[in-house]
Design a protein that fits this description.
heterodimer, A: 7-stranded mixed beta sheet, globular, B: 78 residues, mainly alpha, 4 helices
Chain lengths: 244, 78
């Protein structure tokens, strides 16, 4: 027998909470100054090609990376999908993401998240909708990429676009991933990596090594974003100031 | 070709076994070595070839070849 869903009052409360939290995050986001964006040219070319992609960033960088992608892709009419768990947290994320025009698939994390991966595959390969993934999600360990993103890219033939951000003295939540929240009105820098193609014939026993390589690229992008933020502070930003 | 035959062929392809070696009680992970990457490949291949969509709740219950056959038999073609 399937578990009972939330009651009507819980659903209403969640709807209100999602609405308020989303408004807060968007207003908060508008106060941030993007001091630099580095490496966005390949991303621009990929978007222009119309090919769907997997956008990958560490789970704790969801907020600013999500805002950046939302703005960039919405301007160009690119659809984005993401995975939310079947938990109450997932319900909240789903409501917020739907309100922002994302497509959301709800998936369990049982059997290695297979159900969720299957749904994301359908989005990528059949509906040709780009997908946001956190390679160290949904539960960590933080900064350790799992092979799911690589499995999806290999099967769907879609490139992985890694990205990261850095912020001035951000707040860190006490969640498993120590979610990074930039202080309002602070500066952030975003770094985007070259799209990574995963060969269709990549053997299964090389997936873990590829995931580690993806993790190293994400770490390098964090450093690149931190460097760009420092340079921007000295007045030599690599891109004009912008807003997410 | 009937659905059962297609399911068995796809399981055989993904696991590297022969169709004749597969039994309903064969466990996908323990006996056939179908770990997560192979399982995703298996499900995608089945959906493409049978034009079906396997529900997330069914995926979590799939432990044996028999489970897979039963789940596919329950689904209408999309």
């Amino acid at each position: 027998m399937p578990p009972a869903g939330p009651g009507p009052w819980v659903k209403r409360l969640m709807a209100v909470a999602a609405f308020l939290l989303l408004r807060l995050m968007l207003v908060w986001g508008r106060t941030l100054r993007v001091a630099a964006v580095v490496g966005a040219e390949p991303l621009e070319r990929l978007i222009a090609s119309g090919e769907p992609a997997l956008f990958a960033f560490w789970h704790n960088r969801l907020y600013v990376c999500g805002l950046y992608l939302r703005r960039l892709l919405r301007e160009r009419g690119v659809k984005l999908a993401t995975l939310a768990s079947l938990s109450r947290d997932g319900e909240l994320v789903t409501r917020m993401a739907l309100a922002e025009g994302f497509e959301v698939v709800r998936g369990s994390t049982s059997r290695g998240g297979l159900g969720g991966l299957l749904q994301l595959y359908r989005k990528l390969a059949r509906d040709r909708v780009s997908v946001i993934t956190a390679p160290d999600g949904p539960r960590g360990p933080a900064y350790r990429a799992q092979p799911g993103t690589l499995m999806l890219a290999r099967l769907a033939g879609a490139p992985i676009v890694p990205l990261a951000f850095a912020a001035e003295r951000p707040w860190r939540l006490r969640s498993w991933d120590r979610l990074i929240l930039p202080r309002p009105f602070s500066r952030v820098a975003i770094a985007v990596g070259e799209p990574l193609a995963v060969a269709a014939d990549l053997p299964d026993d090389e997936l873990a090594a590829e995931a580690e390589r993806l993790g190293r690229r994400l770490d390098a992008l964090v450093e690149a974003a931190e460097g760009a933020l420092l340079r921007a502070g000295r007045g030599d930003a690599t891109a004009p100031p912008d807003r997410p | 070709m009937d659905r059962k035959r297609i399911v068995l062929e796809v399981v055989a392809e993904v696991s590297g076994k022969k169709v004749e070696e597969l039994e309903a009680a064969s466990e996908l992970v323990a006996h056939l070595g179908i770990d997560s990457p192979k399982a995703l490949q298996l499900l995608v291949e089945l959906e493409d070839r049978l034009e079906i969509e396997i529900d997330d709740s069914e995926v979590a219950k799939l432990a044996t070849v028999g489970d897979l056959l039963a789940a596919v038999e329950r689904l209408p073609a999309s």
